[in-house]
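Incident log entry.

Two folding requests arrived from the same account within the same minute. Monitoring flagged them as a possible duplicate submission, but the sequences differ. Recording both here for audit purposes.

Request one:
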Amino acid sequence: MPCTVALLAHTPHPDELVAAAARICYRDVTAADLLAGERESLSEALLDQLWRSGHLSTFEHASFTFAVDGLSRVASHQLVRHRMASFSQQSQRYVRMTGSSVIVPPSVADMPEAEALFRRQSEASFAAYRRLVELGVPAEDARFILPHGWETRLVLTMNARELHHFFHLRLCRRAQWEIRALARRMLLLCRQEAPVLFKKAGPSCIFGACGEVKPCGRPFKDMEDLLVED
């Protein structure tokens, strides 16, 4: 089952705020007045210019907070490498695991024999975890036997600049399948609330030449192609 993502909160009027923040550098007007002006008539051309020129510091004024459920710890280990972000993750020290709950990769699920073996091993790991706890081993130590694929849940916050960086890396076809699916769901939510700010968020193959040393050989044709589930 794919992970679920919800946008818990975001900076109000993110498109307009970023545009107003950019204008205050060159105008002798209050930020409040500039924001009011952008809310009346948003300058999409200005945001596009900022993106094309790489002047993304103003993007940092808009932040987005997501709740993620059903992600594996394999993917969460990759996620926390994005250091310009804030994370709060369910602790296996303080939350007792109550059932075998492991993310099954599609390559395993597509093969009945492989899936059966995978599930047997994950259930055996959980049985050993449960027995260790019954024997008095602290949960923080018993958890060592649980697989990397165990489900977790977390809350993460990124500003728009870091989200662009995240989408650039993690929406590439060469990214691991699970974090790519997470990034796709996050981008869809961001585009609902800030359609101009994230109009050109995504891998380089859509907006220019691929920057990978070893390209995937299957570049996305356009944003619509990117946002369709694999």
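Request two (distinct sequence, not a duplicate):
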Amino acid sequence: MEKTAVLVGSSTGNTESVGEKIVEKLGNGAKLINVADASVAQIEDCKNLILGTSTWGVGDLQDDWEDFLPKLAQADLNGKTVALFGLGDAESYYDSFVDGIGTIYEEIKDKG
């Protein structure tokens, strides 16, 4: 069975809640990992990664992702399937809604 990790950065709990629902729907040993506690080894041990973040203000990445993203960029992602999901405030910040996932994408797009 291929291992799947759902990595989330969540300041208010909303992204974590969505991550929990994804893990529940996937079943089969999928695990939720908060990026505040994540390690590169945990990521490299998984075949499938689902990365979730919220976007704050005018396109700012969630704080825990700011700290973890440089580590993720160093991970070996060759052969992995990666998906992204994002949350944000579309009403107040429609011009930068879910820009956080774009920040993550740009950092890892050429990593495997």
